């Protein structure tokens, strides 16, 4: 039985995207706080407690769902946008950094997709946004970004965002790929996920890619991003002037060496 609202959508932009959701009367979409870009008149906002599902949970169930969301760094609350008027209305949500928005039809993906803990953008009301614990010991101790992940469950549309270029790969049964842990965006529920140590001291200490890879074995779909936000942020931080200094030498040939000749 279908539970999620059947919403329509359109994605605008190339590298700085937003998704426009079209709502019929009484249809709703859920989103994290801060992702709203714009909405038309007649759409009502409401803060709800829990994971956004429409499953009729009791208070303890909602408390448990909300508490698990805290583990991913998200709020206890989500926002529901409901079309309370007549005709069709639109509400739009923007990605927080350059990249792509990926629409996921959960009904066509086995009812569940596992994604990075900060990837969720918005979804049709009725989709549950929860926490996925990786049960394997290696993943738990060494997974870093991959240990606690989000899961989207239900039969409706969900939207996740990722950085840079997005690559979607269909893994055949037994097929294995290795991905930098930060580059993994999402995967379907039957993909076997673990963490593998990068062999070789030179590679581990000086390669710049970290000590561990995510290993993914099919069958299933995997979405990979070319520019994780953590990688982008570290490069921006490294290039920024330290200690509140001037950045006037940024475009010069000498760069930072020019400061040596200043009084």
UniProtKB/TrEMBL annotation:
InterPro entries: AIM24 (IPR002838), AIM24_sf (IPR036983), Trp_RNA-bd_attenuator-like_dom (IPR016031). It holds the Pfam family AIM24. Signal peptide: none annotated. PANTHER family: ALTERED INHERITANCE OF MITOCHONDRIA PROTEIN 24, MITOCHONDRIAL, TRYPTOPHAN RNA-BINDING ATTENUATOR PROTEIN-LIKE PROTEIN. This is TIGR00266 family protein. The lineage of its organism: Bacteria, Bacillati, Bacillota, Bacilli, Bacillales.
């Amino acid at each position: 039985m279908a539970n999620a609202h059947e919403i329509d959508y359109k994605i605008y932009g190339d590298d700085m995207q937003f998704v426009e959701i079209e709502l019929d009367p009484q249809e709703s979409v859920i989103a994290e706080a801060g992702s709203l870009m714009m909405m038309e008149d007649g759409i009502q906002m409401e803060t709800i407690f829990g994971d956004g599902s429409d499953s009729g949970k009791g208070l303890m169930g909602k408390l448990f769902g909300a508490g698990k969301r805290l583990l991913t760094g998200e709020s206890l609350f989500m926002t529901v946008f409901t079309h309370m008027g007549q005709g069709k209305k639109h509400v739009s949500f923007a990605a927080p950094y350059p990249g792509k928005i990926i629409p996921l039809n959960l009904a066509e993906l086995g009812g569940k997709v596992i994604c990075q803990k900060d990837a969720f953008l918005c979804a049709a009301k009725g989709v549950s946004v929860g926490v996925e614990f990786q049960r394997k010991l290696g993943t738990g101790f060494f997974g870093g970004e991959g240990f606690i992940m989000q899961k989207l469950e239900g039969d409706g549309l969900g939207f996740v965002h990722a950085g840079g270029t997005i690559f979607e790969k269909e893994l055949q049964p037994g097929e294995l790929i290795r991905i930098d842990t930060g580059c993994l965006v999402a995967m379907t529920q039957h993909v076997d996920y673990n963490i593998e140590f990068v062999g070789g001291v030179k590679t581990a200490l000086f390669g710049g890619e970290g000590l561990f890879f995510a290993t993914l074995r099919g069958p299933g779909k995997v979405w990979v991003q070319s520019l994780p936000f953590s990688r982008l942020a570290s490069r921006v931080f490294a290039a920024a002037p330290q200690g509140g200094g001037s950045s006037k030498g940024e475009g010069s040939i000498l760069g930072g060496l020019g400061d040596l000749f200043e009084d």
